[in-house]
Amino acid sequence: MTMNNKIKSGKDVIDDFFAEIYNILTADKKTVDALVELHGQGKLSDKNVQNTLDTIVQKELKEIDKEDE
Amino acid sequence: MSKNKIKSINITGIRGVREELTLSPDKKSILIYGDNGTGKSSITDALEWFYNDSIEHLTGEEVGGKGKNALRNVFLNSSDEAKIEIKYSNSQLDNEKSITSLLKTFNSNSSKEFAEYFGQSQSENLILRYRDLVQFIIATKGDKLKHLQNIIGFSQVQELRSLLKLVGGRIARGIKAGGYSNKRSAQQAILLESLGQNITSSKQFFETVLKVIEPLKLGKEIKSFKDVKTALKSIETNEETKIVEQIAFHNKVADTLTSLETEISNIHNQYKDYYESYIALRKDADKINKLQLLALLSEGLKVLKKDIVKDNFCPLCQQEKDKLKLAQELNQRVDDLREIKAEQDKLNEECEELTKALRNNYTIVSSLLKEKHLSEKENEETKKKIEKIQNSIKEIGEDLKKDVFSSEPLKEFSNIKIDDKEIKEVIDIAKAKSKTLSDSIKGNLKLQIHTKLSRALDAYLAHKKLEREEEILTKQQVTFEALYSDFIKRQEEALQGFLTMFSDEINSYYVEMNPNEKVEDIKLVPIKDKNDELSGITIEYTFYSERQTPPVALLSESHINCLGLAFFLASVKAFNKENEFFVLDDVISSFDSTHRTRFIRLLVNKFNDYQIILLTHEKDFFDIVSSEAKRKNWLITSLSWTAEKGTSFETPLVDLRTKIEGKFKAKNIDGLGNDIRRYAERQLKQIAFNVEASVPFRYNDRNEERMMNELLSSVQGKVNKQSPTDLKTKNNIDSIMASPILIGNKTSHDNTFKENINDLEVFWEDVKKLILTFYCSEDKCKSFVAMKNFDNVNNKIRCNCGTMSYEWKK
Q1: B230 CB-near residues (< 8 Å, 6+ apart)
Q2: Among B29-38, B185-194, B660-669, B745-754, which stretch is predicted with the lowest mean pLDDT?
Q3: In this structure, what are the phi and psi dihedrals at residue B536, rounded to the nearest 5 degrees?
Q4: What are phi and psi of B663, to 5 degrees?
Q5: Rounded CA separation B385/B381 (Å)
């Protein structure tokens, strides 16, 4: 039986998604970069994603602070 | 590399197995017969523990330790190890797993290869018991989805999907709860007050600042925030420091509470929505009662799934009830309740958001209360009012702790609302004081401009930051929505592809076991909830040309079991990557003989590449399988149980003969008489079968238990009648029946007869002689004389090769 080979495993679905994630036009590059990095490190958890997103916001706001000085 | 098969299994001290039990299939399939209580399931239990570290049907409060508390044989000493050793076709994976009396477990194989094999094997379909047969078929739609997603590794997909949705939703709620628009308006109000106009860009801000400082003739350019700060620095003065501080303090009170005012308005709206949903759910007493039953029903379902109740009755009301139907009903009710539970979860989510907003504002007010000027007597009233606002926020937070089951409901909005008039009052007082103080320094232009400018700068920077923060969060929200939308498309396509192929497999196995029975085209179909979210899987099939679901509604127990088997077998083929063996423990109990035959043919024909360990307690099935399985080179054996040894395999005849002869050699008469009788009984059964000697009728499971006397009498009667001049005179049945060893089974009963080695030797010689009278030991033949070889011409009964023959009446 070849069924085993034809089935797209969960890993295949996730790998394909990340391989083509930059083709999603409306996605923000910085956010996607962060997700790709977490996935690569095997750390794609709710807490880690939220922390990373918060960091992005804080970093951007710090940039504003610098501009304002 | 080829998949794994089992060479041998060695079990000691586990469940019913006391002494060492060795099964050496050497990669072949094996059929094991064992009456109830002989310990068949001990083999399955040991294997389940080996792979899963627990035994599902023993897991429960009473046994505990994931079934390990009941794993060790009860007669073991505390120093004895209970263990199972498995040797595989790939010897690098051989492992012995043991458990001490303190329930500590050890694996002998610590290699990385074994760890990987073991990890993978845990998710494979290796064991199917009767009680687990219908679990998937009667599971809820949601559980079916969860189960399948787990075995195809989609649990990670589901996790990522949930993560994308969760984070996207949280960002959206954060933007809404952040009240960015209101907050920006509040800052604009300050700008309007300080600079006399709204500010929409930095360029406009710099131009306005330039105009404001113009009267001071500073001669500075204002093109950046640095320029604004330098200008402010240059007009800074030590004069009237206290007044400046107080103006700043009152402005801060006014600004903070202005911002809070809009936040409170949001909180009020959120509270109103939450209160409405809360009361709606709470008012529906039926829903609330049902929700409280969810835990009970789920527990009841677990009890049924574990087969704790053996007969067809409801364990709660003790009324007679078909267990399968009961489980199905419970599944349906649990499914319905999960929808109500989803409502409750949504409500909890709203409550959580509201609590979070309250907490944020409570912190803002607490921080304001730390202002040193609030301790001054003249600000005593302001402080009290701010404290009152803080308490109101706290009170709502406390009230929100009441869930829908609380005896007291949430307070109505009118009773809990934060007094916004009071906030306005404090703002007005602060503004008035700030104005009075500002007026008092009206003559001091520098000071006045400095105060306005620094407030305007803070407000504009805060405005700018809020704008940017909202922009970044919105980008993140849009990103997560786009990723989620792309991802679900991928998941659903892959799942649909899998379900189509998997359904075809299940359908083919089911139809092979049930041809021409009007159940066709079985399909696993994904279903979505009202939010278009994948929420479950249902089983559809065509029954007399009509599409139907679910199976329990129309199919019999036997057919549902067939469906369960088909599902397991399809799973074995689809998902077992490491192992090419599986265990079926008493899985055909509800099948009639036609279905049993079809099932065994399906196994031997479609699963010929697999090593199957098939256990049964049903003699009929054993007989059916034996004839089919022998042709495919399966091993066949039987289990027995004694108090001394626990579960053991019946000794093969050749081993029993060697054992008897060994005892004679060692002059060891302990149990020798019994061994000879067992040997003789088994040979006599063959003789009786071949000469068609009839014995009194017994039911299937008792048919095997024929005593030697009974068999001897029967064979003698047949021989005397059919071969009075030949075989009657040549056999020695009379002398065996007269043997003191046989009369009354003297060596196994409590009587005064003392056997001796000479009596036993004579008895053994007689038994061997009798067997050789009926058995042709020629190498090419090795068969008993049998009616199937009856010579019609010469009226003789013969062995297969014809060397041995006796006269035999027609």
Answers
A1: B220
A2: B745-754
A3: 180, 180
A4: -65, -40
A5: 6
Which of A12, A18, A25, A28 best probes binding to B when mutated, by most B CB atoms within 10 angstroms?
A28
Which pLDDT belongs to residue B715?
A: 92
Tell me if B482 and A24 make a contact (CB, 8 A cut-off): yes
Residue ranges per structural domain of chain A: 28-69
Of residues A10, A25, A56, nearest to B156 (C-beta): A10
- Kindly list the residues of chain A whose beta carbon comes within 8 Å of any beta carbon in chain B: 1, 3-4, 6-14, 16-17, 21, 24-28, 31-32, 35, 44-46, 49-50, 53, 56-57, 60-61, 64, 67-69
Q: How far is A5 from chain B (nearest CA, A)?
A: 9
Our measurement of the distance from residue B806's CA atom to the centroid of its chain's CA atoms, rounded to an integer in Å, reads 65
Q: What is the DSSP letter of B580?
A: -
8 Å CB contact between B708 and B684: yes
**CB B165 within 8 Å of CB A49:** no
d(CA B165, nearest CA chain A) in Å: 11
Q: Between residues B682 and B465, which one has the greater pLDDT? A: B465
Q: How far apart are alpha carbons A69 and A67 in whole angstroms? A: 6
Q: Please tell me the distance in Å from A34's CA to the nearest CA on chain B.
A: 11
Please check whether residue B228 is in contact with residue B242, taking contact to mean a CB–CB distance below 8 angstroms. no
CB contacts of B157 in chain A (<8 Å) are: 10, 13-14
Q: Report how far residue A42's alpha carbon sits from residue B524's, in angstroms, rounded to the nearest whole number.
A: 32
ipTM of the complex as predicted: 0.95
Q: Is the pLDDT of residue B530 over 80?
A: no
Q: How far apart are CA B185 and CA B603, in angstroms?
A: 75
pLDDT digits over B596-626, tens only? 888 988 998 899 999 999 998 887 778 777 7
DSSP string, B716-759: HHHHHHH-TTTHHHH--HHHHHT-TTTGGGGGGSSSS----HHH
Tokens 């009788």 locate to B677
* Surface-to-core class of residue B793, CB atoms within 10 Å of its CB (0-12 exposed, 13-18 middle, 19+ buried): exposed
Distance CA A37, CA B665 (A): 76
Q: Do A13 and B494 touch (CB under 8 A)?
A: yes
C-alpha to C-alpha distance for B583 and B23, rounded to whole angstroms? 13
Cα separations in angstroms, B88 against A60, B29, B114, B362, B604: 58, 14, 11, 65, 22
